Give the backbone structure.
Amino acid sequence: MYNNNRELWLSFIAIVLITILYLFMYVTMGGVPPAREFFGHALGVIGFILMVLTELLYSLRKRSRSARWGRMSTWLQFHIFTGLVGPYMVLLHTSWKFNGLAGLVTLLTVVIVASGFIGRYIYTAIPRSVDGVELEAVELQQQMKALEIQLESVKNTKSSKPEKYYAMEMKKIQKRQRGLARQVASLATTRRMMALWHTLHIPIGMALFTAAFIHMAAAIYYATLLR
């Protein structure tokens, strides 16, 4: 089951490093780096590319169930990393000006990131295999039966090892049993929540990218072609 926070730590480190670079440029340039100049422009371009990769690569991997190019859990970590770092770079690109279409893009970006955090924690509540594939109720029941057999084996084992060792083993198995029982009980509810989240998250994402592409086209037209 997916329960790793590594991508959050990596995102945090990347954001700190980007912030340090941004502050250095702020001091060097004597003010907020303008969106139209090289550094501000680069932040926007790289950030937007990361946001596109956030949606594109993970979605492709999720739809390719038989693919062997990486575990789903790894691709989810990449999805979360780019989904945090990319929007942060786009936020810095704005030069802290939120008027017009650029302001709408920024607002939608904040909403989609917040929605992504909610989705992540719903996702982690759904039991999964090591590869990140959702487990069905039948598979969870099979795991519970396997744990029952393991528990009986520990109870019936005759060995010279201390009783404390067996007590610890039984505790671990019983804890895992309780966890599986909770997952079985909440599986249907969690999946309904995930489905509802998708119906909200996906349209917001589509609106964000539509607004972003229009903003980019307008920026290229007014800043480049009309010069």
